[in-house]
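[agent] plan:
  1. take the single chain provided in the ticket
  2. run structure prediction with default settings
  3. attach structure tokens to the ticket
  4. add a short note for the reviewer (M.T.)
[agent] executing step 1
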Amino acid sequence: MGRGSTGLIAGLCAALAIACSPQPGADNAIAEQARPAVHPVSGLEIIPVTVSSDEASHEFHAELADTPELQKKGLMFRTELGPDEAMLFPNEEPTARSFWMKNTPIPLDIIFVGLDGRIANIAAMAEPYSEEPVYSIGSTSAVLEISGGRAEELGIEPGDRVSW
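[agent] step 2 finished; step 3 output follows
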């Protein structure tokens, strides 16, 4: 080894030691990544939901309404829902579903997801505040609510696959 090699080796060792050492806030960054995202209004966990056809797919950031209490409330009293926001109502057991718009001031597209993970039917532009029920065609595995008119805008239709 030539002269100065010792200094170079010492510098490399120091750099490696720093690179391998935990950095300030690293534990916090890992904890933040592990924590699920929550919606600022509802406090519900947000999960990705993808609707796919043969031609395209679209990802929504869906609030997860996974208990009977959360499903009963749904999007009631909400005055806005962003274009890529949604609420997902998974079923514990496959069953036919019906929804209404009581106390819901914004129009919604209510997407009924069949047991095969494909859209069975869509109640497009469900009327705000309506207590008239809209029904699934057959049993569902879940229901996805998105902003009214968004399904048509994105070309979402029965037969498209929904995954979460």
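[agent] step 4 note for reviewer: Residues 51 and 101 are 23 Å apart (CA to CA).
[agent] ticket updated
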